[in-house]
Amino acid sequence: MELEGKVGLVTGGTSGIGRETAILFAKAGAKVVVAGRRAPDGEETIELVRAAGSDGLFVKTDVSKASEVEALVQKVVERFGRLDVAFNNAGIEGAWVPIVRQSEEDWDRTIDVNLKGIWLCLKYEIRQMLKQGKGGAIVNMASIMGLIGSAGAAAYSASKHGVIGLTKTAALENARRGIRINAVCPAAVEAPMADRVFGAPKVHKFVLSCHPIGRFGRPEEIAEAVLWMCSDRASFMTGQSLVLDGGFLAGPNSPS
What we know:
The protein has 256 residues and is of the alpha/beta class. It is built from eight helices and seven strands; from the N terminus they run E-H-E-H-E-H-E-H-E-H-E-H-H-H-E.
């Protein structure tokens, strides 16, 4: 019960890693607020949170809009009185095309959700934690694509590189105030986004071969790492990017 008595927030909690993290937060004793754009899926996550033995609330939110993020944090406090831990997970893949074919609209939307969205979440989450004066823990969703480049993924990769830099800066600004801020960097995970990006059989086979462990990650494996980073067991960790990649970055990507 690492989060007993605490209040957690998970953005992008309607499926995949976000949903599994919300459930784990609940099992660890936290009350959980889930944010996302798909209300039916979000309410389903809250049912799973309650089945795990805790209380929860879904708030429909577009994290690229400041007014909605500010309102989200206000609703967390109105319902549960405080905010102790947060997982800023909401993100989109955008269009994976060469730079010369990428539209300005797609670039802007990908950066707005994946990078500006996390900046906005940090802004209002940290403000609330500072107001409470008892510290807190935040984990941002980055990616191994924030550590390397990949042909055809300019906007996505740029957004995730930005998340890592943003995480380090926010951690430095708040370390002495008791707020720890880290990022998680998965490789391909068995989730809806991977299905969309790597769904074609030949693409799936190639990407799978780049993971020496022989499979994609599972959402619950990433969620376990997020829970640990949000718990007191990770009390000496801040400003870091934790890679969970099945060996992807251990050496040259030599498909086998």
